[in-house]
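Lab channel / #folding
Pinned by the channel admin:
"Please post every new chain as: sequence first, then the structure tokens as a reply. Keep commentary short and put observations after the output so the thread stays searchable."

First post following the new format, from NK:
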Amino acid sequence: MFTTETLQQALPQSLQAVDVTCVQQTTSTNQVMAQQLLHAPHPQLLVAGEQTQGVGRRGKAFFSPAHTGIYFTYGGFQLDPVQLSLITPAAGVALQLAAFELFGVTTQIKWVNDVLIGDQKIAGILANRLENGSVLVGVGVNIAPARDAPDVPIDLPVGTLLDHVPTTDMRPALVASWLQHFDQLLHVPESIMPQFRKHAAWLGRSVIVQGLSHPLVGVVQGFADDGALLLATDHGIESLNSGSIRLR
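Reply from TO:
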């Protein structure tokens, strides 16, 4: 596992004030960060080489093996209401940009919190706002295939950013690139959704929206400036700010 100093050196000068911690293993970077922010609500980045209790949306387990992935949470920064509604799209765009910048790999962003190659999930994003107003966003990336993936029900086939573990550990550069892009996007929030739309997955495809009071069926038409999904249904265009989608 790379060191805190290695990652700190990879960050640009504008982000040197971020408190960086790198660990070999933790339970969940989001859960640990949430506890830290209750006592020290300042910008922090926690990076782990493995999670033993990784958590995704709606409490689902997020498989987070050692050596073949990277799992990190950035928190303690304050956002205005416009930025807050766009935090998850911004995180997806930032990862898309970082993956292309470092590896030349083109990815797509599935509303609201997954990054795909084809229809395979290579990364998940989970953002939270705590009672004290602190915001955190966690990202888990499958860098390369893991040997012992668990046999558990999943919404999407699992994919990886690369087809093998690179000889040089690129994880510090990936995290640093993501953080730089994420910070730049939040400073210009009007740029987030135009970039999101360029790389959005499943446009024009028939989906089921889950996580609502009842499932909703429709065709993905696009995305509003506030990050909402625009879904064409039998009753017209629905604008949805919550839920998750899967292909029919």
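NK: The mean pLDDT is 92.
TO: also worth noting, Helices lie at 4-10, 29-39, 81-85, 87-103, 171-187, 192-198.
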